[in-house]
Amino acid sequence: MNGDDNTVLTKDLLQCRIDHGRVRPRFVDATSAELLALAEELLALYQVSPPPTRAEIEENARALIGGQRDVKLAKGLHKLIQDRATFSQPGTADYGAVRAEIFAASARVLQAGPPDDPDAYYQAILTEVAPPEEIAERGIYGDHPQFEHLLKAPELGPRQLLERYNAGLVQALLLTAGELTVKVSSPEPAQLRRLFKYLKFFRLLARIQTSKAQRNGEVRAMELEVAGPASVLGQNRRYSLQLASFFPAVCALDKWRLETTVEWKGERRELRLDQRSGLVSHYRNFSAYVPEEIHVFHQQFRAKETGWEIIAQAVPLRLGGQETVFPDLSFQNGEGDVIHLELFHRWHAGALVRRLEQLAADPDPALVLGVDRAVARKKEVAAALEGCPWFEDRGFLFRDYPTVERTRKCLARFLAGRDSD
User: Fold this and answer.
1) What pTM was estimated for this model as a whole?
2) What domains appear along the chain, each with residue ranges and CATH number?
3) What is the pLDDT of residues 297-326, one digit of tens each?
């Protein structure tokens, strides 16, 4: 999984209809021969040699798209390809300054009487201005996007592109979602672990309710309530993209149901989807990907801490009622004590206040809290933290991501406070 999964369709490319007051995305048939042919033609624009410029690709795409019956669909497919392609980027050369020097030199050459031979004209300019190697190779307009050259075409097949388009319709709608409810039936343990890895990776917090089978205690059904961008105070585009990027992890489940409200043509509309929608997740090997900040924390923790180790597989915690917490990290010391850490980032204000209330009523769970200073400054959070004297023993503040030292001290304070009770 990588950054290209954060690209979504823009509002002008969305195609939906209203059915009984609900918004329904106009999904395409990913097995349609006609659409597969269109997808193949669009992908072929990125397979030519020598590598084309962005301007050349866009010119050829306009000609191809203009001849389609459904122009909006074709534009949407092309955007998904283009956003996942890698183009050359200008280096450190000052293109603007060099252009100004060349234009000034050109004016002087012309005033002195232009040479009859174009090559002599260019050589006369180059005797006055010696552009850096980068500009000599890319041209004086090499810093303009249309002159960027394709470095890597997206690794997509025609059917994959159509499947991503269908998922992309939903993701674009979720950019304006209210609270998102995901219901999962008879989940496999491996699927649940993968789902919550994505939930934590995208820094989303969910209120989780589970019901278990009486005989073996396995999870029979689960309901997640995830705050949407429309319900997050001070919401920003980053949070919207995080939620939209989480959606493919949902449609990777065998049995699921999603319910929320989204904005469509100026009105709030209900959106309901389930596994019968035929949506396909493009997330494949998430377990092999570790975000850099987490990788660094693991490395530093192993290097600096000898009394504790990070447990590779975190286990869920049951709080009051049926609510379940899936920690961000779990730690174990030599005596077998296990303590879990849950992180609250800048858009988790409501969830943090609720968690503080839960732990004040039931302080037994071996759970400590890390709180981003950005959310701690919010009025309602600051008041809740001030009213929680036990947070000093089982919580700490961080900026962007916790440090090993703050985490270690919090683990020690938690144990000392528990042993003194």
Assistant:
1) 0.75
2) 95-147 (no CATH), 161-287 (3.30.310), 290-420 (3.40.580.10)
3) 888 999 998 889 998 655 567 776 566 777
